[in-house]
Amino acid sequence: MITIRATAAADMPAINRIYNQASVRRFTLGLPFVSLGSSMQFFKSGGPRTSLVACGPDGAVLGEASLTRCEAARRAHVGSLGLMVAEEARRRGVGRALLNALLDLADNWLNLHRLELGVFANNVAAIPLYEAMGFASEARLRHYAMQDGVLADCHLMARLRPGLAVDDSAPPPRPSPAPRQAFTLRAIEPEDGPALTAMMNLPGVRHGTLATPFLTEESRKHLTEPEAGIQTIAAVAQDKLVGVAVLKPGKGRRLHSAYLSALIVHDEWHGQGIGRALLAAMLETADNWLGLSRVSLAALADNHHAIRLYESFGFEMEGRLRADVFRNGAYVDGVTMARLL
Ligand SMILES: CC(C)(COP(=O)(O)OP(=O)(O)OC[C@H]1O[C@@H](n2cnc3c(N)ncnc32)[C@H](O)[C@@H]1OP(=O)(O)O)[C@@H](O)C(=O)NCCC(=O)NCCS
Known about the structure:
The chain is an alpha+beta fold. It is 26% helix and 34% strand. The chain has helices at 12-19, 22-27, 36-44, 94-108, 126-132, 193-200, 203-208, 221-224, 274-288, 304-312; strands at residues 3-6, 49-55, 61-69, 78-85, 114-120, 136-147, 150-160, 184-186, 231-237, 240-249, 257-265, 294-300, 316-327, 330-340. The strands form two sheets. Strands 1-2-3-4-5-7-6 form a seven-stranded mixed β-sheet, sandwiched between helices. A seven-stranded mixed β-sheet has the order 8-9-10-11-12-14-13. Strand 11, helix 9 and strand 12 form a beta-alpha-beta unit. Coenzyme A binds next to helix 2, strand 4, helix 4, strand 5 and helix 5.
């Protein structure tokens, strides 16, 4: 008999042992020799995450699974899953039992509408399990992470609850573009806080990003005072902030990659080549100074201007993410794109 219960700190040695098993490492993003201390730190880091363990009749921990609610307010309907079963306990229904418990939690208690997970494309054990639980592949993420000495592909799989309303509202009308003005590029500085916040509160910016109405300057500190390693660029015209770009490098088995987490131009400064200049400068940094071979990004599926811009720099569509973001009272699809060198 398999018992499912919440993970406790006392389970961490057993979980750390499973996480260090070769076949678990292969199909997760684990590195060799993960210490108990770092597993413990991850467990204590809290956040909106539920971790469950499956135990055998003798109480031994056979596997662990977790569900993390997305912290971005407009993706609060999204949860992401992780799952591992000890090598010696496979094909006994442990994985299925853990997933069933998390799906019940997501559907009936947390009111999550979209569940997603990443799975290596060569994980022939996990993919059929996820498909049997209603997940479908939405994207194939090329060269997503290192696995056994090569850059391997992953699938982004998702499961939706039925009956979601989809937002197909037109974007707010854009003010006609001002005549072309000269602009310069520089790093984002802490003093940009008020202008950056004002720009992110514009309706056009909100329509195309994950911004919520009434953002505060405090909530933008991750852009004006970013963590080490995050690349930021500001576009300035007539002493006014008119655009920003932000690139977040990957960690661990994803050091070759980065994620373009923002490319934003002020509503009144569209059509002046500012977005193109910001993107060109960021990709020059990625290619020639960071040595990255994969840059990825997410966009809303109806953001055709942005998608065309990305395509002109060699970004290719990797998949369409159903009901990815909440916007203006309903859900809207996203797309995931990447440019490989
Ligand atoms: C994927 C994993 C969690 C499956 O756990 P499990 O407890 O062995 O799975 P279950 O016994 O509950 O099997 C459920 C279904 O999964 C599929 N499955 C599991 N192992 C399989 C295998 N080796 N080959 C093909 N299908 C397999 C089958 O559809 C199975 O249903 P069935 O037994 O009715 O045929 C486990 O193999 C594992 O921990 N692997 C390493 C870590 C990992 O890959 N985690 C997922 C990261 S995305």
